[in-house]
Design the sequence.
């Protein structure tokens, strides 16, 4: 073991040094892998590099990624979030916490057409924050619930990070998507529960309800929800019914988003081109990370580090539950420095054999890792949702992180719940028509 | 940052976006084609090639727009000479690695052409054609890093960034 430990420690230190010095993540990872192959094996590193990266980035399964990103870019320019708020608000007036729930329910619904938490947060917040402020809702709860619920963009399908995980761990993306539905709704329920309890304990803080609407009036306002519901049916329904693969559903999603934008007359040629260019650039950023990590996986495989790690952890005699708790802490710490996508691809390059040895279901682990990455989104100093919220509200990162902390705790509860009740994750995928 | 090579990177970026558009069209044709009973042979493989071209060709342009993620937690606190020195280090490392990658990408495409390698799937495409996108795109990325490195060394200051900020996708 000690003979194998040296290269492992050396590589980890080197990785931290290169990434910490600010080298672009994909490039830095590629460099570490290159060095590992050159130092510890006699492989022809350059040829393997080109062949591995080509193989991984020309894979058909990745096609869903840019398409879902593009769909989000188009929807960002529509008035979908406005319609969501108008359609939801009348129904939420009686729940303790009233319109604070528009953040949570709005994010939950929007997450079902958006693959990213930053986009979910920004889209819903653009509409709900000014409305909540105008009515005098407590700022800390408006900010906290939005920052927390925005992360549902990752867990509720479609989800960029699930596609990345699915490719890295070789798990069906369609199944991952469907597996995320119940945990996503459960987490939304936990968020709403916390918000309601807080509101009941601070009754003076919540402003009075708006003038009540008749039931017919409420239904009439709900017509604004129709476009988003149709999009959800087109994307998720087609996957669940087995009509479309995740990739085809993504293509349908782009078409659907274009139809919505055209119907609202928010679609211009310039808007179309900007959304395409934006999606291409965002995807390209992910592609560079995927390129580096695919080569890292290869290098790690050759020097046998993942296998040694699995054996090393095996000798610790941890129970699977202890392992999961350990990994949760590890990811939360890692999430303070790295973005979620890098976190997933870099750790999966070494963790797979460990998980397999411990007998952990990779579909279940995918949902686990997505929830943990959600936590990382709202933990300082690096958390994408914190950045988005800072841009939108002008508050300090530390203020937003404190406001979101109760929602962070709800995510810990969610992890415990899916651990003790795994069917929450595995039931729906097992019922899929394939 | 406006440099002599900027128009080239922009052109590559536009080409990359068109390839992503082509990926969408291919998927749409595949879905509707299946409904009317027409199957496009090897469309999966083509979707993969288009996607690869879309990502590789855009690399340099995305760098210029500040899209590629890096950890700025530590270097963000540096000022003056220390910041400049780390930037030179980062750019030198990135120029070397992307140059190395570009060389072997070119070698891969050249080898595929030399030995007449074709795809093992039913599309049977000569592989050097799609692989050319990787060779060109990664070469452009290496040039973009090199250009920035030269800029920092000559002007003793950080290259001006477009204010779009890093790509925000999660």
Sequence:
């Amino acid at each position: 073991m000690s003979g194998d430990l040296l290269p492992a420690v050396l590589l980890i230190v080197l990785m931290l040094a290169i990434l910490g010095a600010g080298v672009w993540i994909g490039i830095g990872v590629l460099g570490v892998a290159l060095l590992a192959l050159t130092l510890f094996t006699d492989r022809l590193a350059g040829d393997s590099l080109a062949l591995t990266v080509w193989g991984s980035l020309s894979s058909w399964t990745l096609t869903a990624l840019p398409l879902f990103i593009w769909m989000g870019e188009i929807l960002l320019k529509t008035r979908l979030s406005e319609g969501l708020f108008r359609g939801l608000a009348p129904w939420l007036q009686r729940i303790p916490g009233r319109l604070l729930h528009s953040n949570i329910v709005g994010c939950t619904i929007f997450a079902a057409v958006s693959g990213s938490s930053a986009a979910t947060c920004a889209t819903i917040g653009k509409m709900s924050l000014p409305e909540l402020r105008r009515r005098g809702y407590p700022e800390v709860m408006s900010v906290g619930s939005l920052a927390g619920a925005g992360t549902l963009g990752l867990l509720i399908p479609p989800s960029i990070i699930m596609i990345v995980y699915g490719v890295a761990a070789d798990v069906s993306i369609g199944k991952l998507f469907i597996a995320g539905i119940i945990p996503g709704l459960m987490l939304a329920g936990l968020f709403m529960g916390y918000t309601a309890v807080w509101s009941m304990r601070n009754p003076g803080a919540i402003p009075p309800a708006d003038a009540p609407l008749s039931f017919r009036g409420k239904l009439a306002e709900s017509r604004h929800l129709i476009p988003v519901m149709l999009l959800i049916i087109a994307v998720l329904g087609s996957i669940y019914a087995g009509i479309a693969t995740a990739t085809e559903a993504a293509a349908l999603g782009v078409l659907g988003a274009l139809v919505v934008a055209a119907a609202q007359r928010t679609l211009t040629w310039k808007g179309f081109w900007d959304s395409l260019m934006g999606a291409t650039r965002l995807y390209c950023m992910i592609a560079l990370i995927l390129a580096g990590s695919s080569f890292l996986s290869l290098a790690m495989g050759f020097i046998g580090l993942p296998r040694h790690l699995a054996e090393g952890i095996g000798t610790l005699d941890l129970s699977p539950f202890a392992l999961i708790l350990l990994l949760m802490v590890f990811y939360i710490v890692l999430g303070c420095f790295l973005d979620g996508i890098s976190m997933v691809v870099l750790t999966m390059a070494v963790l797979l054999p460990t998980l397999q040895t411990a007998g952990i279901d990779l579909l279940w682990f995918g949902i686990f890792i997505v929830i943990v990455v959600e936590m990382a989104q709202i933990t300082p100093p690096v958390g994408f949702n914190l950045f988005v919220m800072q841009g939108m509200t002008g508050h300090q990162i530390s203020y937003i992180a404190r406001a979101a902390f109760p929602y962070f705790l709800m995510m810990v509860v969610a992890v415990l719940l899916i651990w003790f009740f795994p069917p929450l994750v595995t039931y729906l995928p097992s019922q899929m028509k394939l | 940052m406006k440099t002599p090579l900027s128009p080239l990177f922009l052109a590559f970026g536009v080409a990359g976006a068109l390839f992503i558009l082509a990926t969408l069209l291919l998927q749409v044709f595949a879905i509707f084609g299946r409904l009317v009973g027409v199957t496009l042979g090897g469309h999966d493989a083509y979707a993969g090639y288009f996607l690869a071209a879309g990502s590789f060709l855009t690399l340099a342009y995305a760098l210029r727009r500040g899209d590629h993620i890096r950890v700025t937690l530590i270097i963000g606190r540096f000022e003056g000479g220390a910041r400049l020195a780390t930037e030179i280090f980062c750019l030198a490392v990135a120029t070397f690695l992307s140059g190395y990658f570009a060389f072997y990408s070119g070698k891969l495409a050249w080898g595929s052409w030399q030995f007449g390698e074709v795809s093992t799937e039913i599309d049977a495409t000569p592989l050097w054609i799609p692989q050319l996108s990787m060779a060109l795109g990664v070469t452009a990325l290496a040039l973009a890093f090199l250009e920035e490195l030269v800029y920092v060394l000559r002007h003793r200051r950080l290259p001006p960034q477009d204010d779009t900020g890093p790509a925000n996708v999660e």
Summary: The two ends of chain A are 44 Å apart (CA to CA). Chain A touches chain B through 73 residues (CB under 8 Å). Residues 168 and 345 of chain A are 6 Å apart (CA to CA). The mean pLDDT of chain A is 90.
